[in-house]
Amino acid sequence: MTTPIYPSKRFYRAGFKLTPADTGEWGTGIALVPASGILIENDGNPTLKQPYDPHDDIDAIMALDGDLGPIGAVDFAPDFAERYDPGPLGSMIAALFGTCPVPSASKSTIDWADAVSRFGTFASERPGTIIEVTSAMPMKYNLKIAGGLLKGSIGLRGNTLITDSALNTAAVMLALTYQDRGNRIKFSEGVLRMNAEIGEALASTDELEISDIDVGYERTLDDVHEAGSESIILPKEKGFKMTVKITLPRTSAANLAYLATFKAMAAQKMDIVFTSPNIVSEAIHYGRTYGFPRLKLTAPPAAPLADIMTTVLTFEAEEAAEAPDGMTGHVRPYIEMVNKQATGYLA
Q: For residue 301, what pLDDT is reported?
């Protein structure tokens, strides 16, 4: 079995597998299994970052030699259409958030932890070549609407990139399978609800008319080298930040009233809920929820004069002192996935 050589992404595969939490070691790759396949539109083009450093000695009018420097962090961000059953992409998201127990009633609940340490091995193909990022830790997750679909991007920080993996060979890549090729999440299946953090549980009366969303979750990771290692050691995080930007397609007096909300620094709660017409089992439908127990407007409503005016609201997530009504057990942003996943995404 050989890796394809035709110069089109249509012929190639990519996969990701979490390194075991108890036995895994940063910098040591693991072999993908068939279920490691990920459906992505672009792999983010991971690239080896190792500068060439010419010697800068006296008595050398032109450099006579040089050395390769330390390997820099390999940062890349695969893009994909969100699916209700994301497979290993769900593991990437859970690794970024940090907490995800075994599903209950087809629902996986992913919560934001104080800090994270999970990482995995990523592999992708190029003509005649398999590239492997031996250890990659998720650090960013972004959501946007494009072409009527919910699109995602997951940013990872890797230690190095190799093309001679003894583990992830052409046979391994050819064997990759996918959790679900269908069930993409459509914008038409979504609803956004928002009210005051101290208000009653979110209901249909709290739905906002929106035309766009832009959600970002980020952990700020370091990239440190230590003696005896060419590549970075296991990253540690400096902090995290979560933002939500929504576009209201018809500027109104009610939209502009959010200026008072901004000036009062009145905290809001929000969820963005997508529900598929397809059924997981019996009466349970595929679903995805992005919950925010506490949000603050970080700028006044933006409503520039135009032929048809829109309003943009920009929020930053904070931790609630206690779980708001309707968000039992959650004081930080969380995600719920209803699908056929049988094990915890961090297993």
A: 96
**Per-residue confidence (pLDDT) for residue 242, from 0 to 100:** 98
pLDDT value of position 282:
86
Residue pair 272/246 in contact by the 8 Å Cβ criterion: no
Q: What confidence score (pLDDT) does residue 22 get?
A: 87
Q: Which residues pair with 141 in a beta bridge?
A: 154, 217
Q: Specify the residue for token string 């997508």.
A: 274
Instruction: Answer yes or no: are the C-beta atoms of 309 and 293 closer than 8 Å.
Output: no
Say if residues 152 and 141 touch (Cβ distance below 8 Å): yes
Split the chain (347 residues) into runs of 10 and give each run's mean pLDDT: 91 97 94 98 97 95 96 98 98 98 97 97 98 98 98 98 97 97 98 98 98 98 95 96 97 96 98 97 95 98 96 98 98 98 96
* SS3 track for the chain: CCCCCCCCHHHCCEEEEECCCCCCCCCCCCCCCHHHECCCCECCCCCCCCCEEECCCCCCCCCCCEEECCCCCEEECCEEECECCCCHHHHHHHHHHEECCCCECCEEEEEECCCCCCCEEEEEEECCEEEEEEEEEEEEEEEEEECCEEEEEEEEEECCEECCCCCCCHHHHHCCCCCCCCCECEHHHEEEEEEECCCCCCCHHHEECCCEEEEEEEEEECCCCCCCCCCCCCCCEEEEEEEEEEEECCCCHHHHCHHHHHHHCCCEEEEEEEEEEEEEECCEEEEEEEEEEEEEECCCCECCCCCCCCEEEEEEECCCCCCCCCCCCCCCCEEEEECCCCCCCCC
